[in-house]
Design a protein that fits this description.
alpha/beta, six-stranded mixed β-sheet, 12 strands, 29% helix, flat
Length: 253
C-alpha cells in the first residue's frame, strides 16, 4: 500500500505492507452462527479451532466437510453430530464475548475443571527461548507489525505457528492445527505476543494446555481464571526476565 510518510523533516511516498483483515462467516449445518474478523491465512485451522474451543467437536472425526468460500467470505461446515439449536445453545451456555479478533466465549462449567494434575514443567531458559523463537518465526509481524503471533511448543520444538490480527484467532488457529494433525495438547505449552485475556485462558484450558506465556500482560480476569483452573500463566517474557502470575510450581530450574 502506498502511504505518505513523514521522516526526518520531509514527506515521501512509500510502499509499505498493511495487515490484511477480512470477515469470515461460519455456517454450521446451514445455520449462520458467527462472523469473525480474521487475517486470511490458515482459515481451515481457525474454523476447526473455533469449533473445538466452543466444544462443538472433539476431534477431526466429528467433521463431515469444511468448504471455504473465500470469494464470499463463508466457511460452510457439516458436523457429523448436529448439536441442535446452535444459536439457542450459544445464548444459554456462554456468558461473555471477546473483542478485537472475533467472537469468543467462556463456558461457566469450565470453572469446575482443573489442570492441577498436569505435571508439565518448563525451565526459565525454556520460557525465554520460546519467546525468541516465536518472534524470529513470525514473518507477517516482521513485515508489517499490527499482527499477533502465537506458537505451540512440545519441549523446545515448535509444533505450530499462527499469526492473525486477532489474539483469540491465533489460539484457534493453533488448536485447529493440532486437531487436524491429530495431536493432543496436554504436553504442550503456548507462547504469544499478545495480551492474554480470560477467554484465551479458557480456550487453552479446554484442550488441556496448562502453561501460557506472553510477551505482554495477562488481564486481571485471566489471572483469576488461571488460578482457579490450575494453569501456569507467565507474562512480560523478555530475554532475561518474566513474571509468573499463577501456579509457579511448573517453572523449575
Amino acid at each position: 500500500m502506498k502511504v505518505r510518510q513523514w521522516r526526518e523533516g520531509e514527506w515521501a511516498e512509500v510502499e509499505i505492507p498493511v495487515p490484511l483483515e477480512t470477515p469470515l462467516t461460519l455456517v454450521i449445518n446451514d445455520v449462520e452462527l458467527v462472523t469473525m474478523m480474521v487475517t486470511p491465512v490458515q482459515l481451515k485451522e481457525v474454523v476447526v479451532g473455533f469449533l473445538r474451543t466452543s466444544e462443538l467437536i472433539d476431534s477431526a472425526d466429528d467433521l463431515v466437510s469444511i468448504s471455504l468460500l473465500e470469494q464470499t467470505g463463508r466457511a460452510e461446515v457439516v458436523l457429523r453430530k448436529y448439536p441442535g439449536d446452535l444459536q439457542e445453545l450459544f445464548s444459554k451456555r456462554y456468558i461473555t464475548s471477546g473483542c478485537g479478533g472475533g467472537q469468543v466465549f467462556i463456558d461457566p462449567a469450565l470453572l469446575d475443571k482443573s489442570l492441577t494434575a498436569n505435571r508439565l514443567s518448563i525451565s526459565p531458559a525454556g520460557v525465554t527461548s520460546a519467546i525468541a523463537v516465536l518472534l524470529a518465526s513470525a514473518s507477517m509481524y516482521q513485515q508489517s507489525g499490527g499482527i499477533h503471533g502465537s506458537a505451540m511448543f512440545a519441549g523446545d520444538e515448535m509444533l505450530f505457528l499462527a499469526e492473525d490480527i486477532g489474539r483469540h484467532n491465533t489460539f484457534d488457529k493453533l488448536i485447529g492445527a493440532a486437531v487436524l494433525a491429530g495431536v493432543g495438547c496436554d504436553d504442550d505449552h503456548v507462547v504469544t505476543t499478545g495480551r492474554i485475556s480470560a477467554e484465551m485462558v479458557a480456550k487453552a484450558a479446554k484442550v488441556g494446555i496448562c502453561i501460557l506465556v506472553s510477551r505482554t500482560s495477562p488481564t486481571s480476569m485471566a489471572v483469576a481464571v488461571a488460578k482457579a483452573l490450575g494453569m501456569t500463566l507467565i507474562g512480560y517474557a523478555r530475554r532475561a526476565s518474566f513474571n509468573v502470575y499463577s501456579h509457579e510450581q511448573r517453572v523449575i530450574k
